[in-house]
Amino acid sequence: MKTTQILIAGFGGQGILFAGKFLAYKGLLEEQQVSWLPSYGPEMRGGTANCNVILSDTPVGSPIITAPDVLIAMNLPSLQKYVDTVVPGGQIYVDSALIDEKVARTDVEVFYIPATQMAKDNGIATLANMIIVGHLLQNNPELSFEGTDTVVEKLVPPKKAALVELNKKALTLGKEYK
Amino acid sequence: MAVVFEKPKSLADIPLHYCPGCPHGIIHRLVAEVIDELGIEGKTIGVAPVGCAVMAYDYFTCDMIEAAHGRAPATATGIKRARPENIVFTYQGDGDLASIGMAETVHSAARNENITVIFVNNAIYGMTGGQMAPTSLPGQVTQTSPYGRDVNHCGWPIKVCEMLSTLEGPEYITRVAVNNVKNVKNAKKAIKKAFENQIAGKGFSLVEVVSACPTNWGMTPQKALEWVESDMLPYYPIGVYKDRSAAKEEK
Amino acid sequence: MAERVLMKGNEAIAEAAIRAGCRHYFGYPITPQTEIAAYMAKKMPKIGGVFLQAESEIASINMVYGAAAAGVRVMTSSSSPGVSLKAEGLSYIAGSDVPALVVNVQRGGPGLGGIQPSQSDYFQATKGGGHGDYRMIVLAPASVQEMASLTIKGFNLADKYLMTSMILADGTIGQMMEPISFEDAEIETYEKPWALTGTNCEREHNVVNSLYLKPDELEVKNFERYERYKIVEENEPMWEEYMMEDAEYCVVAFGIASRVAKNAVAAARAEGIKVGLIRPITLWPFPKKALLAAAEKVKSFICVELSMGQMIEDVKLYTQCKRPVSLCNRCGGMIPSPNEVLEAIRKAQKGEC
Q1: Which of B159, C24, C145, C251 could lock onto C74 through a cystine, CB 3.0 to 4.6 A?
Q2: Which of C34, C176, C335 should be substituted to probe chain A, the one whose Cβ sees the most A Cβ atoms within 10 Å?
Q3: Cα separation of C149 and C79, whole Å?
């Protein structure tokens, strides 16, 4: 039985929910059990946003994550709020372009990616989220980077077709980031 | 022997429960005559209010529903949206339409909901025994305004036709009365037009019928009709307040 | 098997309703159920249906009343404070014996409360809400798939028994996405000779009405209605049992609370505690028999709820107080963690409840 609980948190507008949707959709296409739970309410309008994604090969129990295996923190308040909830041996992804603070815990793996800066530099300013997702998939063979193109193509609505290539580019940037 | 006068088919042949001298009987009859004349009895659905006319569902022979207090226009909306081919009318009093149901009234008018509203204004809550209504006149004595309606305390009467005619939405807003033969004849014309508008798909038509309540006004039926002329009609003048199609034709 | 798609719980309700043949939706905006209205607003005009945003919750439920009386499948949806406003219409619909589907995606209360998930409208849904003697069929989905399947079921039951089916969901199930597959909806159709269709001058007029001024007539009406309710209570209770075969302790939870509870039950089992879960799917009719049967074999019950403890009263009632029942609850939009529930199970095992 393999279950991965991923908590993604940041500001509204950073594509937090979309990143989660991407992971959930990827799980769906790979015949996994998945759940995607967003925060909702006033925080959607510019405040903090987070989303819980669970990928599992057995039916998902509670969709609410209290102890994530993976935390993606895209702003400082989110990192501070959730850093201690990550399970020992878990992973934390930090957008180091926006967060100066280092994680003090030594029982987790921490990846610092200046995603927002990378996105800006590559002309895809709104896609820092997908850079981190790309890196996350690269680091976790059981989640696997493979198949991301299909997910992007399925997930980006036809009206915004231009975003397909940009999303792929962001994922690749994340994948190749050392 | 030739039959020279009979009940409209759309009105059941049973005694009405209304008080002696109450014009509800006249107004019911006018509505039923119009339904008969337009040949729409078989496809008409009526919505009864809460108020004196609550049992109108027993009197009209078309399909009927009894709505919650003030909600007749909403219930009528549900019916009309489900069955656009049917003819849907509401029959409401002043407390029902202009107080507890004001939101439903205004919004169904604003949507130009294709229904016909018969609004009976007798300036009092009749069924509950004569309390102050949203249309009770300044100074009018009722059970809940025993010293006369004090507008500084409980506000002014609402002139429904004047108010609704400010909306873009409705097709036809008119006020009639049933206090004399001439007015009764004109009332019927207005009611007929309100139904014809619906048949033609023109939208929301409301006929305010200035009526009387001898029992709760504490008057004889004849005196009550005089009071309609002397007190009610000056405050609620008869007339067409909005007629979109006629206005268009003029242009 | 139909294709699996990822869908929000609220959207699943809307799509399922359409598949169940519902073409009339009346509603008013309120968080956290707005996706239902949005979905309907988008879809209905394209399939010849009606989406209408009403001026109020009160108007919308009375539009539902009208459309239901006219014989069509009709629904509205709202969240807790909005459902309070609909109480009037729910009572009229019950008193007039017309079928409707009403969705409550619950949020914390009382008053304006909050917008986060809650189960504190259990009393309102199962014990009344509106005035008078009446019942609603109350269905409590615990997954996005059930949001869809119970919506379809709800329409069928409403038509079958001429009453309101309420989908009692919560903000979490409404907002979350899970894979869902739409099998061909099993639409049961029932004749509606009572419906307002116009007499066509061929029959006596139909009257849809809840007014009976003669007390003996009203009493008979109520007696008749409760005879029908008795059949519902006999035939329609639905529940899920999880690890109950050898259970010594029984967790009772519905909706999102049952999802959390399942995790806790699995964790407790890993510790060697013989615990199981009964998840009522219909809250009315309550699965009385399942609870009473469990009371014959378990040592105690743990009721997990997102309220100050509402379903617990039914658990005590229908287990006839044969065993102690403890409460593990959060409210106001808070959700207990699996660990909190696990702790409650451990306490029960120690006899501390």
Answers
A1: C24
A2: C176
A3: 20
